[in-house]
From TrEMBL:
The lineage of its organism: Eukaryota, Fungi, Dikarya, Ascomycota, Pezizomycotina. This is Shikimate kinase. InterPro entries: P-loop_NTPase.
Length: 207
């Protein structure tokens, strides 16, 4: 099994999870979504889920997002400090950072994460195209509703600073995007990796 940790970043609806599932099947790796494990990732830093919900209800989306940033930064720095060490719980996984865990509002925090992510060869930005307005339209069409922070995520410099590679998903199937990711991984690691496994995948689904 290919052992290196793979990191997928990008805005909501870009195709990270879909591509990640195909890569996980092909490479016999676990796909780990940071968004889906927020509570356990943030727990060591005294995260209060009820307080976060109250902030959202009383103050709205942006203060809620700002509240999350402290915990996102702590969780991401912890992961990046340890995920290259064999035996660590994050070692060798495909890490889907979600939309927020790769965007940092504080310049010093972004600089710190940039330094921590530098040793990771396979940091892949998954995004429909390089036009911000079109990305917002495509991702909202895929999700079927407005994505309140996605324009901010797309226009923010964080993802471009952190990414080592970019995969554009517009007009491509999930399988084509996953195959592109495999080519990147092969090239970066000079490793003989298996061909893409497409069993149970939907070839008509766009990444």
């Amino acid at each position: 099994m290919y052992s290196e940790t793979i990191i997928l970043i990008g805005p909501e609806g870009s195709g990270k999870s879909t591509v990640g599932r195909l890569l996980a099947k092909t490479l016999s790796k676990e796909l780990y979504s940071l968004d889906r494990h927020r509570d356990e990732l943030y727990a060591p830093y005294d995260y209060d889920k009820d307080l976060a919900a109250k902030i959202y209800e009383e103050k709205g989306l942006w203060p809620f997002y700002q509240h999350w940033k402290t915990f996102e930064y702590k969780a991401v720095t912890h992961i990046l400090q340890n995920a290259r060490q064999e035996g660590d719980e994050f070692y060798g996984k495909i890490l889907d950072f979600g939309a927020g865990h790769s965007v940092f509002e504080d310049p010093q925090e972004l600089e710190n994460v940039e330094a921590l992510i530098q040793p990771y060869e396979n940091v892949i930005l998954v995004i429909p195209c390089d036009d911000a307005e079109e990305v917002v339209k495509i991702t909202e069409a895929r999700r079927g509703h407005e994505l309140g922070l996605n324009k901010h995520f797309v226009e923010h410099p964080s993802n471009n600073r952190l990414a080592k590679h970019i995969i554009y998903t517009k007009d491509k199937t999930a399988e084509e995007c996953a195959e592109r990711a495999l080519k990147i991984i092969r090239r970066e690691n000079a490793a003989c990796l298996p061909a893409l496994t497409t069993t149970d995948a939907n070839p008509a689904k766009t990444a």
